[in-house]
Amino acid sequence: MTTTAETGHAPGAAPGDWEAAADLRAARLEARLGDPYDPANPHGLRALFAADDRRTPPRETEELLDGAGLAAEFVPAEYGGRLTRADLLARTLRPVFRRDVALGFGHGITSLFATGAVWAAGTEEQRRHVAGLLLGGGRATILHHELAHANAILRHEFTARPAPGGGHLLAGRKDLIINAARADAHIVYARTDPARGPRSHSVFVLDPADAPPGSMRHLPRVTTSGMRGALFAGLEFEDRPVPADALVGGIGDGVALALRTFQVNRSVICGVVTAAADTVLHSAVRAATTGRSGPVARRWHKPLTGVFADLLACDAMATVALRALGLLPDRAHVFAAAVKYVVPDLLRENLEELAAVLGGRGYEHDSPEYGALDKLVRDLPVAGLGHAGTASCQSVIVPQLRTLAETAWFAEEEPPPELFRAGAELPPLDYRALGIAGGGDFMAASLLGSAARLAPARGVGGQIAALAALAEAFTAELRALRETCRQLPRHGGRGLSDPAVAVLSDRYSLVVAAAAVLGVWEGQDGSDPFLADAAWAVLALSRIGARLGIPVPDLPDGCIQQVLDELVRRYRAGLGCDLAATVLAQ
């Protein structure tokens, strides 16, 4: 069992200390995991790839994470854990995901996804019980309800009908659940109403040890194409008794709880998987520089710098969304969905570009220097970054577009500047305060504010002028999007299957992605000269604009070279390709 003293958490720490404490924990975990490229390191990439080949969890590394008290990161500080702010949570998890997405899911973040409903609506007794379970080294897993466009993890669901003596009886089968066999708590989203609608499901927290004989059956383990080291298996229930006090919130609250908690899950996923792509980018820089005494070959300048700029943009989007969950909890839901909509597509495209740089080395599957590409290509879709995730994000965004166009865009005030400033004190994440409808669009307002401040620089030349032109181009796109979205039906009408509606999700999400990049660039305090300069933001916004199909200015002279120089510098200095330029173990 991991104690509070062993985790290094200081209960009651002031908000001003949260960031420094999280950075220290992340640095300690990075150091404990050691040099990922050392073939003798039992927690290095070679060992993790070998476990993936064996289709088993890396037991030695899991023991290390247990010893570091990783589960405490998922428990709110008020219940003895370390969870304060969502952006700091992602920062502390990145050392794990930088090495292995499957390890991050199989040994950790799944517990966060499962317990979110308890932190949002559980009774005091439920919260304390779940907190004690995780702090004691236990695991929780989530038994999802079925979603449209579902992948194997989200397919099939459970039903719960009232029991004659009170409580419910749980039935149904699900074949693919992370940690189904080794979880100490099952958080079940079960259908309690056969009718479709917002009150169709309820949430229950169950102890698998309490299931009477014959009411719960473990199904055989399933090997997936990706995340092969995570333990996927199934569960089948047959009239499994569910006591009345297992209900989280009220009957019919399941859909609302999913919408509230999924915005945290979506944002955290985007914040941590970017670190995994960082590892692949380092591999590509190694391939492009090893054995060369001169500069990087010109043919690799565009893909390397483009991916670097995209990763900074992804980090900006995820970080702003995570910070908004605490600062603007009643208004973050649409932006969180937009971030989850954009980041996976950027990462998939990035991996394709890096595959061209790596060439044949990208097929060295067991190589710690180059094998990360192959594994991440397989892991990303299983991690929820495939089509099912895209469809669920569209279902959040599309119903809001007409309302935003009529009431929020070009009318709302900008968000507080603390949203974009590294080091700013922010409120803690409170699941109970998260909203799921309304609330305006603070990111669209931020875009307009950035464009207005940059407007005087248009036409004067150089990188700031290019940035101003890009900000104006995205503003024009938002203006056109407003006119289109005002024509959408108020209720019903075209659904997600309509390609025209899907395009609106694309356009909107890329516009607010650009707003995040501009906001983060404006929020720089000058302590990092590279981030304070406009080159990375110009390149990132140019690539977003090209995906959107809007006119973008030519890149200023020296822009690509400036970004490339910083990328090579970070690679040689052992620094991450994130906004924090994280010091990596080596």
Structure description:
With 586 residues, this protein is an alpha+beta fold. The chain contains 18 helices and 8 strands. The chain has helices at 4-7, 15-33, 45-54, 59-67, 86-99, 101-121, 124-135, 254-289, 301-327, 333-358, 372-385, 387-407, 442-454, 462-485, 499-522, 529-532, 535-548, 559-573; strands spanning 140-143, 158-162, 168-178, 185-191, 201-206, 216-222, 232-242, 247-248. Strands 1, 2, 3, 4, 5, 6, 7 and 8 form an 8-stranded mixed β-sheet that branches. Helix 8 (254-289) runs antiparallel to helix 9 and helix 13 (442-454) packs antiparallel against helix 14. The longest helix has 36 residues, at 254-289. The chain is globular. The model is unreliable at 1-10 and 148-153 (pLDDT under 50).
Brief synopsis:
The chain has 586 residues and is an alpha+beta fold. The chain has helices at 4-7, 15-33, 45-54, 59-67, 86-99, 101-121, 124-135, 254-289, 301-327, 333-358, 372-385, 387-407, 442-454, 462-485, 499-522, 529-532, 535-548, 559-573; strands at 140-143, 158-162, 168-178, 185-191, 201-206, 216-222, 232-242, 247-248.
Which series of helices and strands comes N to C? HHHHHHHEEEEEEEEHHHHHHHHHHH
Arithmetic mean of pLDDT: 92
What structural class do the secondary elements suggest?
alpha+beta
Please, how many helices? Answer: 18
Q: Helicity range of the residues?
A: 40-55%
What overall geometry do the principal axes of the alpha carbons give? globular
Low-pLDDT ranges: 1-10, 148-153
Using DSSP, what is the number of strands? 8
Tell me the Rg in angstroms: 23 Å
Oligomer: single chain
What does the largest sheet look like? 8 strands, mixed
Distance between the termini: 30 Å
Portion of residues in beta strands equals: 5-15%
